[in-house]
Amino acid sequence: MSDVICPLILNHVYTGTRNERRLCCSATPRVSQDKKRTDEEWWNSEEMKGIRRKMMRGEKLEMCGVCYYREENGLESLRQEALHDWDIDELLKNLQPDGSVDVLPEFFEHKSVHCNLKCQTCTPVLSSTWMKLEKEMYGYKWPNNFDDEYEEKQAESIINAILDKRCKKINWAGGEPMMMPVHWKVTDKLVELLDDPEYHDYVRSIRIQYNTNLTKGIWKNKSIPEMLKPFNIELRTSMDGVGDAFEFNRDGAKWDECWNVWNEYYDLGFEIEVNAVYTAPLIMNMDAYQKQYIDKDVRFYDHIYVTYPDQYPGGGQGMVDIRLYPQHIFDRIVTNAENSLKKYMNEGFERGLDILRIYRDEKQKMSHIFENEDIIRKMKGYTEHRDNFCDNVKFQDLIWELDQEAAEWYSKIESLPYDPNENKQAGWRAEDWEGR
Q1: CA pair distance 382, 399, nearest whole angstrom
Q2: What is the dihedral of CA 196, 201, 203, 207, to 10 degrees?
């Protein structure tokens, strides 16, 4: 089982942005989209028992391809991270031959589609604002999956685990956690329990992980960082560049406002990870991005830009993919980014080097895609169309600011109209797409 075993199917339940069940945030396709079963009913369902039996036999699971891909490319996977965090031998003691687990879950991961941004690397699957953008850009009304009754059940499930002192970890992601009703119902309960001597120490011990865009700093006229200060928080902040590069990648966010909220958390002593997706603007902006945090005690946990090149142009989001750039421009930009990572050596910089190494390898292996003139022309067509809906910074302006040679190349591309029907057939719009 060594290559497939994962603690997360032994101690953890995940609910996605469409109220679906997956094995974790990296797993695709979904296991089930049944909204009516509680966490307890789902935990030892026939689906989950069958998945655990496959794992016990050492079989690779189709929904775990992202972890396998990362491991094959020398990048630590979520599965490997989980093996560091949890005692797999102890968890296996609760696993029965039929695939059931004797104890209820102790780790809860909840996503919601509630979000106020339309980030360049996001999709309607992960953001309610992107749903509106999809309608504006292509006239396609994305199905609304809000379910207040189901969210109430999810909140009750987590609160019951807290009251039973069974919950050890919660991961809030989105969308944007600070806009999620489930999050606030649970958090309000945790704040209440701080005043209960029976629960005070316990609720402070629960590991609570956030993936937040930092656009929300106030809740009920109170500072969110101040409210969360008493708890055991691991804060992952989405900071895709600085200044204009940030505002382009995080479309709808204001750099100065988010940076102020970031510093409020930092000044209060929160454990912070800085996250970004390695898009072309971020890579061009790498020196400023790394320099921004040189005097800060933080860790970088950046992300590879996961796309479906074999489905391009439909599987991507335009010219934010650095692999589409001419080889000589690509090499210079990536080399400069590598040099910046090595110069500042912020904690976690090795992960960034690994991501850039993978980009180099993939550009070579799939040159027939990344050097295809028609694909590049259609990708520019998408980018030009997307620019019409950017709130703050447009790509056509940003690229001149970041890299003149790349901008001159981009300006000479004769774009082709972008066909939304191609994109609807692509992996990133397919029903089972989720995550980065």
Answers
A1: 15
A2: 170
Q: How far apart are CA 302 and CA 299, in angstroms?
A: 10
Residue type at 429?
R
Q: Is beta strand 207-212 parallel, antiparallel or unpaired with respect to 218-219?
A: unpaired
DSSP collapsed to 3 states, the chain: CCCCCCCHHHHEEEECCCCCEECCCCCCCCCECCCCCCHHHHHCCHHHHHHHHHHHCCCCCHHHHHHHHHHHCCCCCHHHHHHHHCCHHHHHCCECCCCCECCCCCEEEEECCCCCCCCCCCCCCCCHHHHHHHHHHHCCCCCCCCCHHHHHHHHHHHHHHHHCCCCCEEEEECCCHHHCHHHHHHHHHHHHHCCCCCCHHHHHHCEEEEEECCCCCEECCEEHHHHHCCCEEEEEEECCCCHHHHHHHCCCCCHHHHHHHHHHHHHCCCEEEEECECCHHHHHCHHHHHHCCCCCCCEECCECCCCCHHHCCCCCCCCCCHHHCCHHHHHHHHHHHHHHHHHHCCECHHHHHHHHHHHHHHHHHCHHHHCCHHHHHHHHHHHHHHHCCCCCCCHHHHHHHHCHHHHHHHHHCCCCCCCHHHHHCCHHHCCCCCCC
- Give CA–CA dist 48/30, Å, rounded: 12
Whether omega before 29 lies within 30 degrees of 0, making that bond cis, reads: yes
Task: Give the CA-trace dihedral at 100, 101, 106, 111, to 10 degrees.
Answer: -10
* Predicted local distance difference test score (pLDDT) of residue 1: 65
How far apart are the C-alpha atoms of 70 and 64, rounded to whole Å? 10
Grouped pLDDT means (10 residues each) for the chain, 436 residues: 90 90 87 80 94 94 90 90 94 96 96 94 91 90 81 94 98 94 96 98 98 96 96 97 98 98 98 97 98 96 89 88 98 98 97 96 97 96 96 97 98 88 49 41
In our burial notation (b when 16+ CB lie closer than 10 A, e otherwise), range 163-182 reads eeeebbbbbbbbbbbbbbeb
